[in-house]
């Protein structure tokens, strides 16, 4: 109650700033009350941040259903703001998180696996908001031959869109698709270029090992000339657009 009374004396924007200050100074327990107050009073970033905290168990017990509810709040309350609104990045990110939950479901909760819903959510975020992470996830869904509407052409389209925006995972998967698809033998060198570019940008974390393995496999099959051309192309891309780097996940 004391925390509620204290929040009543500040604006939602001030509460958001206070919650962010506490979070980034390492006092995550003190960030919760102001973030919740801000989320309940029109601050999309606060609701999104709480969703991320519960999804990752970051300063709170991990709770996917609670995270799902916060991400749903962001989408429900702010998706009509439009792709150019200040809330747009948080709405797009929340949509991606919801799509991932629909892909797997959340055990022992009303949130069940629903690949149709996941594709619908990813498509909205990918097309309306132009979100690279959504485009990447949509590409992966179209690549999966165990899912309905499997379509490698559409997969290539969405992966390329994300790759050009700097999504490292999309660069690797787009390159793999071009390099290892038999019908696209003339595109092999282009595929190796994208995989080399992805390899150049990873930081070596556990989530990036698949990119290293993929690139090494392709590199072992390529000629010396192809390797050199790919390395030169990747270096040129980074010089021109090195500031454009997105997630690898």
From TrEMBL:
SMART domains: SEL1. InterPro entries: Sel1-like, Sel1_AlgK, TPR-like_helical_dom_sf. PANTHER family: SEL-1-LIKE PROTEIN (PTHR11102), SEL1L ADAPTOR SUBUNIT OF ERAD E3 UBIQUITIN LIGASE (PTHR11102:SF147). This is Sel1 repeat family protein. It comes from Pseudovibrio brasiliensis.
